[in-house]
Amino acid sequence: MRAYSQPERATDPMSLPDLEIFHSEGETNRPDGWYWWTCFPGCMPDGEANGPYETSGEALAAAQAIGSIAQTIRYYAEG
Known about the structure:
- With 79 residues, the protein is of the alpha+beta class.
- It has one helix at 56-78; strands at residues 2-3, 19-24, 33-38, 50-53.
- It has a 4-stranded antiparallel beta sheet with strand order 1-2-3-4, covered by helices on one side.
- A hairpin with an 8-residue loop joins strand 2 (19-24) and strand 3.
- The chain is globular and about 40 Å long.
């Protein structure tokens, strides 16, 4: 599932989803569950997967919370 780290950007026609939420079950060496990572469509992930979470909704909420924190830090850093 593709999603936005900042949900308000979903209505911006110039914005792309920057999150991928996915379920991993015995495919890798990670525990079963829902994960998220940042990546743009057609690009490799920016880092390791975050999780596991019980549901896709929990994974999305965690990712969007991080996106909100990053937006706040940028706001204060830019003054």
